[in-house]
Please model this.
Amino acid sequence: MILQKSSSSMVFKVRRNPAELVPPAGPTPHELKLLSDIDDQKGLRHHLPLVQFFPYNPSMAGKDPAHVIREALSKALVFYYPLAGRLREGPKDKLMVDCTGEGVLFIQAEADVTLDHFGVDLLPPFPCFHELLYDVPFSNDGIINSPLLLMQVTRLKCGGFIFAIRVNHRLCDGCGIGQLIKGISEIAQGAAKPSIIPVWCRELLCARDPPRVTFIHHEYKQLPLHNKTVSTKPSQASFFFGPNEIDALRCLLPRHLAQSSTTFEVLTACIWRCHTAALQWQNPNQEVRLLCTVNARFEPCRFSPPLPEGYYGNAFVLPTAVSTVETLCGKPLNYALELVKKAKKEASEEYVHSTADLMATNGRPAFSMTGSFIVSDITKCGFGDVDYGWGKPLYSGLVRAGIDDISGVSYYVPYTNSKEEHGRVVLICLPSEEAIKRFGKELNGILQIKDEEKPI
Model:
């Protein structure tokens, strides 16, 4: 049975200390560092928020998680010193990091709730999240010259706490953030340095000389939009997929495809179709696209030789599947699956270099969001392996789907539910609550879940 969660109306109070700048604990180089051409694209001009929920641990009684994490953060910044600097704009709008050592923003807070108030299964969207990661005035003002990282630790009435972090996406992708917070957690538990030492090496993902765009990059080609006006306030929901749901999807496929396809491919084919149907396109011939996030750290896109282990910059590309609304929603699930597999197969080391070359030659274009659906699988980022001394988090992952007020971006987060079923949570963002309901109805139809079997 699919576990679904939509927006909650729960309200609670948070008392915050004033935000403070935390600098590196020791001396760091003062230098300029260029971003890669994969980092420096318009589609990454925002912050990426992450949250972790930790229960009370009697063995840590008397210890303040905010103090422990703040001290570990300061020590970790000695190794991640570019994050304590500020972005500057160079010739032709090229971005670079001025390693000033000014520091990152840190907030200590307390909330008058317990973990139980968030439900048996901790799933996004989380109520009052703006209170759990306060948007400090001017901290997100135009990205340039602003702090690159904001962190808040909120203590709860039950003795547990919530750790929230917002990182400038130009500096890190999901794996980079995972590496950073793991390093902070290791130092929090007494290590002198992170087990994986961060490296910059952004020149590895800069454009070649001369640039050579060798692929058709549909992900950056803008399309005309032929659809009704949608709400400007997107709605959020999350859906849990365990082994039973994935097996049910595989049963809908020809045997050879069911056996040769990864869970990501099967799930993405299903989610793409449901997302497209939920939007109720007026034009059945409207072109729609699926942008699959493929990371150069992993197969099938893994570099040879591989990127350095400590690389924490953006290392992903977005190979794209293309169809029309009518064809995608009218054909069996295996049609969408074949398109997903074909797109993923296109991702290669050469595809990454071609993307970097496109950025350098075409003015670093933004992703095409018209008719597009972006899926990012963060199950390999290691968010759930972090332990600051209080044990593993109950939920560790992205806060929401979408980018700011733009829907059409979905994340897969590893999760174990209250029944101890291991799977992943799919974070969905659509233009309205009605569209969320249509998505759920379409999904239930594919999985053949009857109305009486739906969760309350």
